[in-house]
Amino acid sequence: KPCNEEERLVFNCENKYDPSIVYDSVIIHHVPDGWNDAKKYFRLSKKVYGLTTWETTHLHAQWVDYINLSVVDEVIVPSFFNKKSFIDSGVVKNINVWYHDIFSFVHNDNLSVNNVLNKFFIYKDGVYTQSSNLVKTIIDNNTVYYNISQYNERKNINQVISTFCSKFTGDDNVCLFIKTYFKEFTTSQKEMLKYKFAELLNAYDNIPPIIFCFDSLSDDEVNLIHEFGDVYFTLNRGEGFGLCTYTAKKIGNKVICGKFGAEKEFLSITDLLVSYTLESPFNMEVYHNWYNDDRQKWAVFDDKDVLDCLHFYPKTIKTKYNYK
Q1: Distance CA 119, CA 218 (A)
Q2: Nearest to 256 by CA among 176, 152, 137, 172
Q3: What pLDDT digit, counting tens, does each position of 132-141 carry?
Q4: Of 149, 313, 124, residue with least CA distance to 225
Q5: 314: burial class by Cβ within 10 Å (0-12, 13-18, 19+)?
Q6: ∠ CA(105), CA(111), CA(247), 5° rounding?
Q7: With contact defined as beta carbons under 8 Å apart, do 55 and 75 qualify?
Q8: How far, in whole angstroms, is CA 86 from its chain's centroid?
Q9: Fewer Cβ close by (within 10 Å): the C or N end of the chain?
């Protein structure tokens, strides 16, 4: 039957879905504290799944309560790493593992490569410069190691940059590309990140080319980065799935990442995994308080272990969808 007025106001049904569609189940893709609120907008007779993910060895105790006491019938997680961490944390509902996936890359005739490249900054001698021609020259003539992550302690971008600049110099045929943001894409937050990265990079001499992007990008624009990239290099402290790592692997790039978390479930023997030790999460208070349970652990990496895995690779030979 057609949705009621409350449903229409919440979901703007006339533009988002046809309320007359017959369905058998509902998947709520949301953090668990929102599952009960979401279910009231669907038919109560239908089976409801709660889909979510987490990044440490254990869930926060409140999450366990939200899940076990929720009205969802079963839980979906995107990795066996998550299934184990949910069970170890005390989740008693049935847990299904459904890997995420991405659609095949399709050439977008409306994508202007130069417009995308103009959103990038090259860092050199304390100065950020925008030049699409220079960016293209750099990525055409060097192996591109790259990382697409929010700037926070879990994503651990500082160690990515510092180990890269310790391993390679401007005399090597490599560059590093970082796509990041803090919490929002405001001018003040972009300038804050520029300052932080300049402060970090000023400690190194003769660094390889470093390219940054601080803007919000569309899916096609992000895929462009995967297309010109060669080695996805991440030292995140834990992933429940790792969509950027997965995308990099699917398009044919090599991956260097930690052994902890879900990413190793879809990697191969050609990829390199960094050893780790477990510690309690830290420096995440600015985002939320779901990392402050005493049972939770995530990965930390010794620089030596990272440098041992940070190999030089020649550029990846693969079909270009939008870049060329």
Answers
A1: 12
A2: 176
A3: 999 999 999 9
A4: 149
A5: exposed
A6: 30
A7: no
A8: 20
A9: N
